[in-house]
Amino acid sequence: MKNSLIRFIARRASARVDNPASTLRFFCSQPPPSSPSSPPNSKLFVAGLSWSVDEKSLKDAFSAFGHVSEVRIMYDKDTGRSRGFGFVHFSKEDDARYAKDAMDGKALLGRPLRISFALERVRGAPVVVPRLPNA
Predict the structure, then answer these.
(1) What does the pLDDT look like over 62-99, one tens digit per residue?
(2) Maximal CA-CA distance, the chain
(3) How many CB atoms lie within 10 A of CB 63?
């Protein structure tokens, strides 16, 4: 029993060394160095938008939580209709955190909003989505 356990562990260790993908997966699955509770920036990703929502109505909905510096709704190139998501930029991170906590799941023009902090977009680089620890 003891020898079979040692052989099993030795095979697993050698498989990790021989297979770089498993090593890469191991390193990529580590939690990010920053705390997951703090937002990386003051930009919110807002999903679940109704097609009738425009930039002004979205800004009005979020301006109660702080100064909104920019609002962008993404539109389909072919139809010109809203794709159902957008971004809200706040001047302060605390305002963005407060708005996310207050508005996530709330309805705007009949549709519940799903809000998260936007990831920084870097052209040509892979997008790394941080994993939250199980709480």
Answers:
(1) 999 999 999 999 999 999 898 999 999 999 999 999 99
(2) 69
(3) 15
